[in-house]
């Protein structure tokens, strides 16, 4: 029997795009026209996944999402052509961790749906699951914080040798540095040492695993720790804090107020990943492992103005997939 997916998408063009993607992947879409019908169809059909547009979901403080979570354990995927920053608090309160930007990319939506429907954690972790027809793959292990810069230089050099010459290497370098530093310091409980700029070495058996590879059309990097201390709530709260601080800075620029005493460093790295990366994923197996995967297609340019959010928490998604 085909996988059932309920879709609440008011825009006819996007509805057709989503329908084509779902049918191509042998899913059975059920399209609804309004919130009331959405709840009725979800209750009757018992879908494995629900896709909702943010404009359709946001009336009454995203009440529809709360109602759907009462009716069904199916994961909810939001799609948007709006700035997701405006809804970060609501997403956190409704436990929404996946928001895809419009225009919808077939490969990205297909990958997200495949992950959500899988009960095999091996499908979630590993860069080979995110770059079809991977032809190059390299791995580096980090034990010391002083290895971060050397690791990045090695990856950039090999990336160019493989024929990927991106115009935004500076931004990529910055994002990778934040990911690696977070994995080495924060994941292993060395936050204060990071603030104090103290070099550290991870005790055995702890390490950070870096994998990078390429196909003919895409390049990617994956950074994995073996702690699993990051959570969706930590990510979203940190992002929300960074968004609020950016707004404070903008207001202070207009008013001349001194806000230096209330600005915090927390969340900057996570926000850089979201704002400056290509296609990216946070994958969390709580208490076991966290992996950040970033994919850049050959013609990558960061032109996604509305942002996105892709956090896979195995403790939640695998349980909902198994019970759907």
Automatic annotation (TrEMBL):
**UniProt cross-references to Pfam families, sorted A to Z:** HATPase_c_2 (PF13581)
UniProt modified residues of type 4-aspartylphosphate: 53
Listed A to Z, the keywords are:
Phosphoprotein
What's an example Gene Ontology biological process for this entry? phosphorelay signal transduction system
Q: Which residues form a coiled coil?
A: none
Per the database record, which ranges form the Response regulatory domain?
4-117
The record ties this protein, via SUPFAM superfamilies, to: CheY-like
Full protein name: Response regulatory domain-containing protein
């Amino acid at each position: 029997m085909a996988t059932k997916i309920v879709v609440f998408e008011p825009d006819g063009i996007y509805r057709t795009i989503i329908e084509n993607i779902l049918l191509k992947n042998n899913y059975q879409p059920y399209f609804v026209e309004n919130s009331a019908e959405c709840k009725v169809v979800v209750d009757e059909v018992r879908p494995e996944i629900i896709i909702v547009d943010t404009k359709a979901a946001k009336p009454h403080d995203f009440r529809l999402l709360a109602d759907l979570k009462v009716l069904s354990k199916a994961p909810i995927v939001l799609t948007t052509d709006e700035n997701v920053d405006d809804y970060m608090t609501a997403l956190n309160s409704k436990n929404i961790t996946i928001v895809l930007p419009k225009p919808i990319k077939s490969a990205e939506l297909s990958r997200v749906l495949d992950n959500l429907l899988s009960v095999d954690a091996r499908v979630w972790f590993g860069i080979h699951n995110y770059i079809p027809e991977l032809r190059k793959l390299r791995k580096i292990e980090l034990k010391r914080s002083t290895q971060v810069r050397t690791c990045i230089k090695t990856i950039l050099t090999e990336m160019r040798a493989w024929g990927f010459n991106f115009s935004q290497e500076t931004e990529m370098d910055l994002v990778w540095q934040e990911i690696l530093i977070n994995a080495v310091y924060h994941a292993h409980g060395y936050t204060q040492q990071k603030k104090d700029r103290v070099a550290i070495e991870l005790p055995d058996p702890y390490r950070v695993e870096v994998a990078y590879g390429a196909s003919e059309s895409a390049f990617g990097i994956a950074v994995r720790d073996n702690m699993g201390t990051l959570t969706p709530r930590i990510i979203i709260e940190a992002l929300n804090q960074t968004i609020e601080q950016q707004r404070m800075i903008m207001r202070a620029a207009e008013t001349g107020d001194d806000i230096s005493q209330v600005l915090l460093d927390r969340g900057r790295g996570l926000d850089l990943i979201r704002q400056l990366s290509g296609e990216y994923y946070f994958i969390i197996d709580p208490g076991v492992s966290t992996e950040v995967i970033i994919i850049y297609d050959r013609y990558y340019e960061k032109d996604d103005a509305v942002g996105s959010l892709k956090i896979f928490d195995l403790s939640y998604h695998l349980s909902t997939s198994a019970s759907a």
